[in-house]
Design a protein that fits this description.
14 helices
Length: 316
């Protein structure tokens, strides 16, 4: 019986061979473009989810067209067993890819998204109907997530950050933990308000843009496990901390701008919800800079170069 690792090595070797052939030869690229109408991606260890994206492209093109491309190029064709494995690989790895896209975003990306996102990935992996060849991968991912994020799940500050994001509130928590975490939230908000009152600092409300609502499919929605409230209770002026928290957790509104209606909770939000440090935004900036600093602009001054990068980036 062939092991899962042998299935992986066999299928991925053919994916890599096809990607190499297309990316190293214009002639081969033209053959693929003619047959499939699209090129194949080249997985690389320096790019997030590149292997997943490359395999997804193979699966989307379909076995018949991929085989036709391989035969014309002179490569060993994929078998039905290979394609079945690749489809299972895409199914299992998709929640990880979606989570990574969320975590490397440039907007609506806060520390408080870590725990619910990991929980969403775990829920997706645990509920999947997969064959025996994919089960070791799913088990390994679940074990890796549990081991990597165990300390974060036990850290109250991460939970406070999550509870202060209107999309999650207390809804991401198991029912038996909500009362305890609600008391923790009240204590933390009171401490933040008292500290700021003592130090006589002012809290300026940030400019939070309304979250873009996209029509994500069920497979792409990591937060299906969350049961949202249906109450339409809203904030009122002059509420105490406890009253604010009660109105906040009972509200059905999930946009981030909801936090602006609760002055006490807003102060805690600003303390606990730092933006996630992601290298993705930096790489995108470097890519933009590389398109500007071309040979014909080699004598541009540093000041002008910075202005050009700024303007090019803002055009998006």
């Amino acid at each position: 019986m062939i092991s899962s690792s042998e299935h992986y090595d066999n299928a991925m070797a053919k994916v890599q061979a096809l990607s190499n052939a297309v990316n190293k030869s214009v002639k081969h690229a033209d053959v693929v473009e003619e047959v499939a109408g699209i090129t194949f991606l080249n997985p690389t260890c320096t790019r997030w989810s590149s292997e997943f994206n490359a395999v997804t492209r193979i699966v989307n093109v379909g076995l018949e067209k991929v085989r036709e491309c391989q035969v014309k190029i002179g490569l060993a064709p994929l078998t039905e067993s290979n394609m079945s494995f690749l489809k299972g690989f895409v199914q299992v790895m998709k929640p990880i890819a979606v989570a990574m896209d969320l975590m490397q975003g440039e907007t609506e990306c806060f520390v408080g998204q870590v725990i619910p996102t990991v929980m969403g990935v775990q829920a997706k992996l645990s509920s999947m109907m997969i064959d025996s060849t994919m089960q070791p991968l799913a088990d390994a991912l679940l074990a890796g997530l549990q081991n990597r994020f165990r300390a974060i799940f036990a850290d109250d500050q991460y939970h406070l950050a999550s509870m202060l994001i209107p999309k999650f509130k207390l809804n991401y928590l198991p029912e038996n933990e909500r009362h305890t975490k609600k008391l923790l939230l009240a204590h933390a908000v009171s401490a933040v308000v008292n500290d700021q009152s003592t130090s006589s600092t002012t809290c300026t409300a940030p400019s939070i843009q309304p979250q873009q609502v996209t029509g994500a499919s069920d497979d792409d929605d990591l937060f299906q496990f969350i049961k949202y409230n249906t109450s339409t209770e809203s904030a009122q002026r002059g509420q105490t901390i406890d009253q604010e928290i009660e109105a906040y957790v009972n509200s059905s509104e999930t946009r981030t701008t909801l936090i602006l209606q609760f002055p006490h909770l807003l102060k805690a939000f600003l303390k606990y919800n730092a933006a996630l440090p992601s290298g993705a935004a930096v790489e995108r900036l470097f890519s933009c800079a590389g398109q500007i600093l071309v040979p014909r602009r080699c004598k541009v001054s540093d000041d002008m170069f910075e202005k050009l990068v700024f303007l090019r980036y803002k055009l998006k």
